[in-house]
Amino acid sequence: MRFPDLLHYSVDMPEDLLAQEVPPLIVQTMVENAIKYAVNMDEPIRITVEVAQAEDGEGHPRLFIRVKDTGPGFPDEVLGRLASEPDQAGSEGGEQIGIWNARRRLRLLYQDRATIDFYNEAGLGAVVQIELPMDKKAR
């Protein structure tokens, strides 16, 4: 790694969820975005991937994947664009193509049973939360 003291990471995932399948590149895309937009040469950053299981309101098991960083967070303009234009293939400058691709793949695989949300956690940085239906075979 080029700058070993500037980037720290952790993965918090219960062992019983290791067999749960996740679409390829979904998590990687979000981690790469965190590195691209949050890492700078002035101060270290931490990227954390958290994986958990919970039931929805109807008792169906759901997989929650959160990718969060300690960077400056999403600018308000980006959050607004992500919320209002979820089906747009990136912005005019070609940004957010990876996010658009991830959303599209989730929609193709799960229809309306998967979600991806973007927000800032007060005082901590950007958070991407992916919610997927759990594979019955892996539980």
UniProtKB/TrEMBL annotation:
Write down a Pfam family by its short name: HATPase_c
What PROSITE patterns does the database record attribute to this sequence? HIS_KIN
Q: Spell out the SUPFAM superfamilies in the cross-references.
A: ATPase domain of HSP90 chaperone/DNA topoisomerase II/histidine kinase (SSF55874)
Q: Which GO terms describe its molecular function?
A: ATP binding; kinase activity
Which superkingdom heads the taxonomic lineage of this protein's source? Answer: Bacteria
Q: Which GO terms describe its biological process?
A: phosphorelay signal transduction system
| Domain annotation Histidine kinase: ranges | 26-136
Transmembrane regions listed in the UniProt entry: none
InterPro entries from the UniProt entry: Bact_2-comp_sensor_kinase (IPR050640), HATPase_C_sf (IPR036890), HATPase_dom (IPR003594), His_kinase_dom (IPR005467)
- ATP-binding found in the keyword field: yes
The name under which this protein is listed is ATP-binding protein
